[in-house]
Specification:
By secondary structure, this protein is of the alpha/beta class. It has 21 helices and 24 strands. The strands form six sheets. The protein has a six-stranded antiparallel β-sheet. A six-stranded mixed β-sheet has the order 8-21-22-3-23-24. The two termini are 38 Å apart.
Length: 1187
């Protein structure tokens, strides 16, 4: 694996998308101070997950976004992408290239991606763990890390050695296991508390459970016996219902016959009334025709008057148009003379146009010569521009090299100034560190306040969470009640639907016919009347009362179907059924004037039900002549008003019969057939309403659950923040101790600066000499640039003269073109005048012809108007004759109407006798139905008891019931069982399930405790195993690094001794690491006694030793050799080359020695203030520029 490229956009001083491509060796990035080259190492550190703004040289994370410059606006986001070659699959991703990116917005939002898939910071950290590339790894080495590894306390040096040893993942797993162990101990404590509580409940629940089981045994026997008794009674009642239904069928047939006679008489009377209405309509239509004829005669008279007026107008127009024709003939001669004059003028203009064309041709020839001169001038300017571009490129290359040389001089000057001020800085450093110590004290105080505030927040969240949990419990209780109500409604609907499916309440004869039809044995059977109509609940009782037993009448397709069904009933001796053939049963609607305006009138029975139109005849025959009123008083008033000619039923089931008799009392339903279906629908609607309430409450229910989850998450987050605050306090205390150590080290550094001053003075002089040489080269390149600019200026003046000549020629050509255009316009005007004269002459001749044609048309119109007048006179005579005929027809229609009225009076008299006999049959039928209703009530009561007591239907009870040979003995046993159940006293039936549940939980908790103890022991074993692995791996790695350090130190320093030791060899995982070095020719008691350069060289040796043991895929070195002299810079660069086989190096540097050893070189400049630009140079280019 190695780093292929780095892409930045909007990051710090790199607003534009900038990409750096890297090879496998050493790549150097150079540039003046402040050019932004260190921002490249910051970008890599940031994309690998750095969260410390201090480490990124900022105050807040927003500082990584380009903040604008004098000529550019600020950016809203920053993005860095890292492209890694993964062909060796060093990273656990199945791809040859892995791209890691990080993007941050000014809003504070950020995102990480691995191979363009959004991920977490944790995923990035785990991806690079133990590769040396992590945020805490050793692949990013800057001056701060160089000083840190030397100046840090021995215990603070462990991180980099652990990363090199590859035990970071083990430590991570160990910390997770320790966290899980704490949770396991807490879980065990909770489980044991719960188990203790359950032990107190198990004993009492066992006693209650035994008592409940005894109760259930007795209740089960009682249920079986009681259901058997009830089913025996139901079978007896069903037999009695069948017999009563047969009697009702006989009475119903008698009533239906009389009702049919009545309906036929009513239909005949209705047809007579219809005939009278038709006669009245015919008379009225004849009168309308007479009125229309009279209106037509008046219209014809008016048309004749208009035609006579049109004739007079046409004759006067003929005289006027004749005068206009004479005037048009006189104007023709004047137009001919004017046209001849215009043709002469046209010839003169065309001659002038030819002269102008010759002058324009001469002007065009001059323009060609000017174009040749322009082309020569353009070629010369292009050549001069190329020379200018070459000079500017040269200046760019020299500027980069000069900037690098100048940077070296600046560095030496800077180091001299630092050495001169060493004594003064010592005091300043102490003061600064003391201020930092005071800041840390203030931070610790703030940290304590913050920790207290976070603890209070945790308590507040817990209180709010408890309130929300109570609300959730109340809502769950309410939702359980709704669900229970919905289940109860659906259960009741199921019971009624079972009755409906088994046709409970229908006569056995009706059931027999419908079952045979369903089996295909009878054709043409459609449905009982109760199934072909539906009615709103408020009208259900009225409709049931109105048609009563007819609800069980069976509708058939025709008389043949009815005949076949009656034959089968007779053969099988299955009783009687009334059939209603669609082909023969017809009814009519009651039509009484003013009925709809009567007080209390609601409507006709047929209008209050819904049905398929094919059943129109059946519904009208049953309900078409029955009125519905709101209450009995209004019903009687309506009946009196219309002479008791039709039946009226009230909403509460009282009946006023035709003829004047009344039937009423308690509600009598035909076995509740219509009401039952209506109740099923209402129950289903109620269940749906309960379910909708449940669904409507889902959002609030889920919101409460989500809020509780969010509060739990907030609590965890706040607890995490509290832990972070505690960790910050520990780090601040460590920083305090570190500052005290830095004060002592600063004093030693001041002494070292004084001894190095002379050496740096010589190096500074050499750097200044190189700067002078490159300044001369730059001056020569700028002279070439000035010459090129002068040449371009002369050529541009020459081009201006040619352009001026070209403009004069163009002006002359334009003047000729304008004159030609004006002459062309004059020619077009003359031609237009000639054309207008021609068109005018043609128009004159056309108008003359139009006038002649108009005279011919007007003469024809006069003849047409005279013919129209004659036709109107003939039509008037015809209409007068037709009106006389219509008056004779009206007289004949009046005579026929008198005849129809006489027949109506006779039929009404005969109908009264039928009404009286029908009322007697109705009384007998009502009594039979009342008896049926009593039986049905007993039947329905038992059915209801089955559901109310045991929630079972008739079908389910029939399967459970057993034969009862001795009914009296069964009743005695039933009483005995009831007494035993009563003697048990209060019974907690739920105790059986509760005991089973509590005992199950008790056993489950015991199992959980055993599992938790096992898991805890496994975690302890895992921690011991990980600790052992970490010790072994770290010890081996540290031994190898220490050995390499000794070798690398001697190689870099040219001798001497160095070693790394553990402060506590018995605890290698917590031990600090001490550094002991002895440069050649020196005796050093403490590493702080070394000069700054020597300390840096020691730190570099440590990093090189680590890289030899655990090579990182790539390593970015940010001016780590800044404190070294030239000789040591060369040694450092040469040693880098020995390591570059396993590790790719990117060095950000000012030092020439490092640049000379680089395989690839990038220059960073800031030509535009605040904006960094990248220039890639090869080493050959650098040598050319220096020469």
């Amino acid at each position: 694996m190695f780093l292929k490229s780095l892409e930045l956009q909007g990051f710090k001083s790199f607003p534009d998308k900038t990409r750096l491509n890297f090879g496998r060796g050493l790549t150097a990035v150079v540039g003046p101070n402040g050019s932004g080259k260190s921002n490249i190492s910051d970008a890599v550190r940031w994309v690998l997950g750095e969260q410390s703004t201090k480490a990124l040289r900022g105050i807040k994370m927003e500082d990584v976004i380009f903040n604008g410059s004098a000529g550019r606006k600020s950016y809203g986001w920053a993005e860095v992408r890292l492209f890694l070659d993964n062909t060796d699959r060093a990273l656990p991703i199945d791809s040859d290239e892995v791209v890691v990116s990080r993007k941050y917005y000014r809003s504070g939002d950020s995102e990480y991606r691995i191979c363009d898939k959004i991920c977490r910071l944790r995923d990035v950290n785990e991806l690079f763990m133990d590769t040396g590339l992590g945020r805490d790894g050793y692949s990013l080495i800057g001056q701060g890390k160089i000083a840190e590894i030397i100046g840090a306390k021995s215990t603070q040096r462990r991180e980099i050695f652990e990363e090199a040893a590859g035990i970071s993942k083990y430590r991570y797993r160990k910390e997770e296991a320790e966290h899980s162990l704490v949770q396991a101990d807490e879980n065990l404590l909770r489980l044991r508390d719960n188990l203790s509580g359950l032990e107190e409940r198990v004993g009492p629940l066992r006693e209650q459970s035994d008592k409940a089981k005894k109760f259930l045994e007795l209740a089960e026997e009682k249920k079986s016996l009681e259901i058997s008794v009830w089913m025996r009674n139901l079978r007896r009642l069903k037999s009695q219902l069948q017999e009563q239904n047969s009697s009702i069928s006989v009475f119903q047939a008698e009533y239906d016959s009389l009702n049919a006679d009545y309906n036929k008489a009513e239909e005949y009377i209705g047809s007579l009334y219809e005939g009278i209405r038709n006669l009245d309509f015919d008379v009225e239509s004849r009168r309308k025709e007479i009125a229309e004829n009279e209106a037509g005669i008046s219209g014809l008279a008016a048309d004749s008057a208009v035609s006579k007026n049109e004739i007079q107008h046409a004759e006067s127009e003929i005289a006027r148009i004749g005068g206009e024709i004479k005037e048009l003939e006189a104007s023709g001669s004047e137009n001919a003379a004017f046209a001849e004059a215009k043709r002469s003028e046209l010839a003169a203009k065309e001659a002038e146009r030819g002269s102008l064309a010759e002058k324009a041709a001469a002007c065009a020839a001059g323009a060609e010569g000017i174009a040749g001169a322009e082309a020569e001038n353009a070629a010369a300017r292009a050549k001069a521009s190329a020379e200018l571009a070459k000079a500017e490129a040269s200046i760019g290359h020299i500027s980069v090299v000069l900037a690098t040389a100048g940077s070296d001089a600046e560095q030496y000057e800077k180091r001299l100034a630092e050495m001169d001020a060493a004594a003064a800085k010592t005091g300043e450093l102490i003061a600064t560190n003391e201020k930092d110590l005071a800041d840390i004290g203030e931070f610790l105080s703030d940290n304590a306040s913050r920790a207290e505030s976070l603890q209070n927040s945790i308590s507040g969240i817990a209180l709010k969470k408890g309130l929300r949990e109570k609300q959730l419990a109340a809502m769950e209780e309410s939702r359980a009640a709704l669900q229970k109500n919905a289940d109860a409604a659906l259960g009741r609907a199921k019971l009624l639907q079972d009755l409906e499916d088994h046709m409970e309440g229908f006569a056995q004869s009706v059931k027999f016919v419908l079952e045979r039809a369903k089996a295909g044995a009878l054709r043409g059977i459609l449905d009982p009347v109760s199934n072909i109509l539906s009615v709103e609940s408020k009208y259900a009782l009225a409709v049931e009362t109105a048609i009563s037993g007819a609800l069980q009448d069976v509708v058939v397709t025709d008389e043949d179907a009815a005949r076949r069904a009656i034959g089968v009933l007779k053969e099988q001796n299955r009783g009687r059924v009334t059939f209603l053939p669609l082909t023969s049963v017809h009814g009519s609607k009651l039509t009484e004037n003013g009925l709809e305006h009567c007080e209390g009138f609601i409507g006709l029975g047929s209008d209050l039900v819904k049905y398929d139109k094919k059943y129109d005849g059946v519904i009208l025959s049953l309900l078409g002549r029955i009125a519905v009123a709101d209450e009995l008083g209004n019903a009687i008033a309506i009946a009196k008003k219309y002479g008791y000619r039709f039946r009226i039923v009230t909403l509460d089931g009282q009946l006023v019969n035709a003829g004047g008799s009344l039937t009423g009392g308690s509600s009598v339903k035909s076995a509740g057939i219509l009401s039952r279906r209506q109740e099923i629908e209402e129950l289903q609607a109620q269940a749906e309403a309960y379910k909708r309430q449940l669904a409507d409450g889902n959002a609030e229910y889920m919101r409460l659950r989500e809020e509780i989850s969010a509060l739990a998450a907030d609590s965890l987050a706040t607890e995490s923040e509290l832990r972070t605050a505690k960790e910050d306090r520990i780090r601040a205390e460590a920083e305090k101790r570190h500052l005290e150590e830095k004060i002592a080290a600063a004093k030693a550094d001041a002494e070292e600066y004084a001894s190095r001053r002379a050496e740096i003075v010589g190096l500074n002089a050499s750097a200044k000499q190189r700067t002078a040489e490159f300044t001369a080269l730059l001056s020569a390149a700028e002279t070439d640039k000035a010459k090129a600019l002068e040449t371009i200026g002369l050529l541009e003046k020459e081009a201006a003269a040619v352009a001026e000549k070209k403009a004069r020629n163009a002006e002359e050509a334009a003047a000729l073109a304008l004159s030609a255009a004006l002459t062309d316009k004059d020619i077009e005007a003359v031609r237009a005048d000639i054309e207008r004269l021609r068109v005018s002459e043609e128009d004159r001749l056309a108008r003359k012809e139009e006038r002649k044609a108009a005279i011919v048309d007007m003469e024809a119109a006069i003849r047409a108007h005279r013919e129209k007048i004659a036709a109107a006179e003939a039509e008037t005579a015809r209409l007068n004759a037709e009106s006389a005929q219509r008056r004779e027809q009206i007289t004949a229609l009046y005579a026929k109407r008198q005849e129809f009225e006489s027949k109506t009076t006779q039929e009404r008299s005969a109908q009264k006798s039928i009404v009286a006999r029908r009322e007697e049959a109705s009384v007998r039928l009502a009594k039979a139905r009342a008896s049926l209703d009593d039986l049905q009530k007993d039947y329905d009561r038992i059915i209801g008891d089955l559901w109310d007591e045991y929630e079972i239907t008739y079908t389910m009870a029939d399967e459970i019931a057993q034969e009862i040979p001795e009914p009296q003995k069964a009743q005695r046993r039933l009483a005995e069982l009831r007494n035993k159940i009563k003697a048990l006293g209060p019974v907690n039936v739920s105790a059986i399930e509760e005991y089973r549940e509590v005992f199950g939980r008790y056993e489950f908790l015991r199992t959980q405790i055993e599992d938790a103890e096992k898991a805890r022991d496994e975690l302890r074993g895992l921690i011991r195993g990980l600790t052992g692995q970490m010790k072994t791996i770290f010890t081996d790695s540290f031994t190898r690094i220490a050995g390499n350090f000794a070798v690398v130190f001697r190689d870099l320093f040219g001798g001497g001794e160095a070693k790394l030791t553990l402060t506590d060899p018995d605890d290698v995982l917590e031990s600090g690491i001490e550094i002991f070095v002895q440069p050649p020719g020196k005796i050093v008691n403490h590493i702080a006694a070394l000069s700054g350069g020597e300390q840096a060289f020691v730190a570099i040796a440590i990093y090189f030793a680590i890289l030899k043991v655990s090579p990182a895929p790539f390593c970015i070195l940010d001016e780590i050799e800044a404190a070294l002299d030239e000789a040591n810079v060369d040694r450092c660069a040469e040693y880098l080359l020995t390591l570059s086989g396993d590790t790719q190096f990117i060095a950000i540097t000012h030092r020439r020695g490092t640049m000379e050893h680089a395989d690839r070189l990038y220059g960073v400049t800031m030509q535009e203030e605040g904006v960094s630009k990248l220039l890639e140079l090869s080493l050959d280019d650098m040598e050319t520029v220096e020469a």
